[in-house]
Design a protein that fits this description.
single chain; 102 residues; mainly alpha
Length: 102
């Protein structure tokens, strides 16, 4: 995500290791694992960044690619992605990627 030309700027100044730990905790939690999420509430953290839907979906696409490269079971990836998409409305702003043409 850090080097991605579309969403990488979102991670400038964000320490990698704590982010990876929070991501793993979140993933474990939504898939029924035993790691407890220890971060701040997701809506509060993400809303402040005004993440648009395209950026949110880009992160999901990157995650799918990495999961495939790591050989994660496609059924697990599908369920993970379904649960992540369910969070889109609370983690993103109402802004679109394109400016209003009016």
């Amino acid at each position: 995500m850090y080097a991605d030309p579309i969403i990488g700027f979102r991670f400038i100044g964000v320490p990698r290791e704590p982010l990876i730990e929070r991501e793993l905790e979140h993933l474990s939690g939504i898939l029924g694992g035993n790691l407890a999420y220890s971060g701040r509430p997701l809506p509060a953290v993400h809303r402040a960044h005004r993440i648009n839907k395209g950026q949110f979906r880009r992160r999901l696409a990157l995650a799918r690619t990495v999961a495939a490269e790591l050989g994660v079971d496609p059924l697990v990836v599908a369920e993970w992605q379904r649960r992540e998409r369910a969070l889109e409305a609370v983690l993103t702003s109402a802004e679109d990627c394109l400016p209003d043409e009016s």
